[in-house]
Amino acid sequence: MEKKFARSFFGYDEEEVEYRIRTMNKAYEETLRQLSDKLFETTSEIETLKERIRAIEEEIAQENSLNEEIKGILFSAHMKATDNVYGAIKTAESMSIKVREQVYEKEKESERIRKTLERLTEDMESIAQCYSKALEEYKNV
Q: Going by C-beta distance under 8 Å and a sequence separation of 6 or more, which residues neighbour residue 12?
């Protein structure tokens, strides 16, 4: 930006120099104002972005907290369900053992009744034979 000034009798033309200085000052002030406005806009934008970042970080923290809470609830529910399943299995095994014992007892009782019936049948057959012999002897007499 080199400017050549016209020379006068006492050096450079004073009006031209002053005009050039004023023009440069105005350009400087306009550039400074534009840069200041741009700096203000950029600073405002940065602050807005910082607030947005804080809000997003807070949202992420809340989501992480919620995720941890959900994990805890799911883990607790899983443990409870596992305990219920194992409890049901133990109960089923216990019931199965009791049922097998009852079946065994019923089979023993059934066997005892069957043997008693066999013995009674044999006794009845023996009595019937005795009656039959007595009836035969009575008829023969």
A: 5, 6
Query: Closest Cα partner for 108 from 116, 20, 124, 55?
Result: 116
Reading the block at residue 17, the tokens are 């120099």
Residue 17 burial (CB count, 10 A): 14
Q: Residue 14 pLDDT more than 90?
A: no
Q: Is there a contact between 20 and 3 (Cβ–Cβ < 8 Å)? A: yes
Residue showing tokens 């006794």: 123
Strand partners, 7: 12
Tell me the whole-structure pTM to 2 decimals: 0.48
Task: Determine the straight-line distance between the first and last CA of the chain, rounded to whole angstroms.
Answer: 168
DSSP-derived 3-state class of residue 141:
coil
